[in-house]
Amino acid sequence: MNRIAVILIASLGSPTIDKGRSDVTKDDGDLYVFKVSSLRNVAMTPPYFHDGSIATLPEAVKVMGRVQLGKAFSDGDVSKIVAFLKSLTGPLPKNFAEVPQLPPGGFKP
Ligand code: HEM
Questions:
Q1: Ligand 1 centre and the CA of 74: distance in Å?
Q2: Does 109 score more than 60 pLDDT?
Q3: Whole-structure pTM over 0.85, yes or no?
């Protein structure tokens, strides 16, 4: 995982910077580490990124281009990438909306 890139994403939309997995594990090695979600059915799962800070798929693609690849995608490129991402839409897995099972003691709200 590209941690520096994730730090930039972490500072995009949230009022405070999320420290990621290290908040749970208390391990500095996990600072700014976030689970990267699957892109399967991504067109159906806004808002985007770990903090839900980006509302639309075209905007999320532009952010990815800029932050992860250092590229400014043209509107045409964004449309093509979004069309591809929409092609990843299919039947939802049965457990799509289930609350995830967290490790015992792993998270205390
Ligand atoms: C054209 C290339 C790319 C596209 C279209 C793309 C698309 C996306 C989208 C749509 C999301 C949001 C998923 C969601 O919230 O459900 C995402 C998240 C993410 N992607 Fe990419 N991505 C690209 C390249 C990359 C690259 C090259 C990296 C790493 C080097 C990367 C790392 C991540 C990470 C770490 C997240 C989660 C970030 C967070 O939750 O804050 N992506 N990507």
A1: 18
A2: no
A3: no
Question: 45 C-alpha to center of ligand 1: Å?
Answer: 13
pLDDT per residue as tens digits for the range 69-85 = 999 999 999 999 999 99
Which residue of 36, 38, 42, 62 sits with most ligand 1 atoms within 8 Å of its CB, as the best mutation to test the pocket? Answer: 36
C-alpha dihedral, 11 to 15 to 21 to 23, nearest 10°: 130
Indicate if ligand 1 lies below 6 Å from the C-beta of 63. Answer: no
Residue 38: other Cβ atoms inside 10 A? 10
Helix %, strand %, coil % of the chain (to 5): 40, 5, 55
Residues 6+ apart with CB under 8 A from 49: 9, 12, 13, 60, 63
Measure the CA–CA gap between 47 and 2, rounded to whole angstroms.
22
Determine the residue of 53, 68, 78, 96 to mutate for testing ligand 1's pocket, defined as the one with the most ligand atoms within 8 A of the Cβ atom.
68
